[in-house]
Design brief:
The protein is α+β, with helices and mostly antiparallel strands. The chain has helices at 10-17, 41-51, 53-74, 134-201, 207-242, 258-262, 277-298, 347-413, 419-453; strands spanning 36-39, 79-88, 95-97, 111-113, 119-132, 249-252, 303-316, 329-339. The protein has a 4-stranded antiparallel β-sheet. The chain has a two-stranded parallel ribbon with strand order 1-6.
Length: 457
């Protein structure tokens, strides 16, 4: 009988867990960790919401939008300015009096006469209040919707972060099972190698059988070493997601139970588009698009402003404005200004059409998103149901493969089975364990993807 080619469990971890899924950071953890973080999955998620840069950026964008809203509000409030000025003429302006301007006896030549004092000062306040501006009023109405848009971006960032944290956290928990199975395989392989050497020394086994057992043990030890490295990299990925230093240590306290994968998930395809954050985000985009259309319509309306001012003026040939007794002259006014748009080179019409087209795009995107959600939910549901069945089957298959190996090993020890039979049985067991770990990883990812698809993550 030909030996079967062994399958190694480190391939699952390399291909399915951290390198292909995240590929976030590499390197080894430092031996002297600064802080130990003992975290359940919920505590890890809360820490991620607090520290993750993407979520922080979304929150900062919300603060920026709050300031933008204050700026929009300011456009509807009065503008009051204070003015203080003083002028000293080096050469005062003059006026020309024509000759004979005052009748007989007047100078025969034009005379340059200055009526302007050498110094003057002005102090006053000006007021401007928008009474009607369609664009300002639309902006005021759109403020709360703009804030909702920014807050929904935070929800989206947290949702995507939660998906990644759940997947990495639970895959690290499953890795404990993987290491446990590898340790058991190594112990079995080491015992088989020892028994085969004894039998070889007594002439009941060939040197080739010893070499085969040695190769299988070495492969398993290499697989465990690679798995440990990938687990370290997995912890680094989780640290990155939750925003803790790479030199710190993590202790994961949540227990992984297979039955937890199956419970608490609605499988009746009763879902609502409105439960999805991306759909809510697009709905708010549609409302902003409606405000955009109203804003560009408003540019066709006249604007009405109230203007006013109050001034004090003083004039003298000596600079004594700050002393008591000086004479200040008052003047003030109130006025209304109406600005009627007449022609702007068709730019207003182009902007309005562009806003309407953008709104049409958003509506099309919403219809496309609905279809995509329908597809995503059904595919995720199918993947999850299949993953659950596969996990159960592979669990039973692993138990059966272990039973077969134990029986074959007993026959080998009784001389009723060859070393090749034991090696093949061990290879089958390793393959079954690999498939089982693969099924656990797939089940975790499938559950998280399905919960995200129905908006319940």
């Amino acid at each position: 009988m030909k030996d079967k080619k062994p399958f190694y469990m480190n391939k699952i971890f390399c291909n399915r867990v951290f390198l292909s899924l995240f590929g976030i950071i590499g390197g080894m953890a430092f031996a002297g960790a600064q802080t130990i973080h003992t975290l359940s999955v919920q505590e890890a998620l809360e820490l991620a919401k607090k520290n993750n840069i993407t979520v922080k950026t979304a929150r900062t964008n919300l603060q920026i939008q709050e300031q933008v809203n204050k700026s929009v509000t300011a456009d509807a409030l009065p503008t009051v300015s204070g003015i203080v000025s003083s002028t000293a003429y080096v050469q005062t302006p003059v006026s020309i009096i024509p000759k004979d301007a005052f009748g007989p006896g007047a100078p025969a030549e034009p005379q340059a006469v200055s009526f302007t004092p050498k110094y003057n000062a002005t102090a006053g306040v000006t007021l401007k209040q928008t009474l009607f501006d369609g664009q300002v009023f639309v902006g005021l109405k759109a403020r709360s919707t703009a804030l909702d848009y920014s807050m929904k971006e935070i929800d989206l960032a947290v949702e995507n972060l939660s998906v990644n944290v759940y997947k990495v956290y639970y895959q690290l928990l499953v890795s404990k099972t993987q290491v446990m199975l590898l340790d058991a395989d190594i112990a079995r392989a080491a015992k088989l190698l020892n028994d085969t050497r004894i039998m070889n020394e007594n002439g009941f086994a060939e040197k080739l059988d010893v070499d085969k057992a040695q190769v299988q043990l070495a492969n398993l030890e290499t697989a465990r070493q690679n798995t440990e490295t990938n687990i370290i990299n997995g912890y680094l990925s989780l640290k990155y997601l939750i925003g803790v230093p790479a030199a710190d240590s993590l202790v994961l306290t949540t227990e992984f139970k297979e039955e937890d994968l199956k419970g608490g998930i609605p499988m009746d395809l009763q879902y609502r588009y409105e439960d999805r954050y991306d759909y809510q985000h697009l709905q708010i985009s549609g409302k902003l698009g409606e405000y955009d259309i109203k804003r560009y319509k408003a540019v066709y309306y006249p604007t009405l402003d109230l203007n006013g001012a109050f001034f004090k003026n003083a004039y003298n040939n000596t600079y004594d404005f700050l002393t008591t007794g000086g004479t200040w002259y008052s003047n003030s006014y109130l006025g209304l200004s109406v600005n009627v748009p007449i022609f702007s080179g068709f730019s207003k019409n182009a902007n309005l059409k562009k806003a309407r087209l953008n709104y049409t795009l958003i509506k099309d995107q919403m219809e496309n998103l609905k279809q995509n959600i329908d597809l995503e939910v059904r595919q995720a549901r199918n993947n999850f149901l299949n993953a659950m069945k596969t996990m159960d089957n592979q669990k039973e298959n692993t138990d059966l493969a272990e039973s077969v190996y134990n029986q074959t090993k007993k026959k080998f020890e009784s001389g009723l089975a060859s070393n090749t039979d034991v090696t093949n049985a061990q290879t089958d067991l390793i393959q079954a364990q690999t498939n089982y770990i693969n099924a656990l990883y797939t089940s975790i990812i499938a559950k998280v993807d399905y919960l995200k698809a129905i908006g319940k993550i």
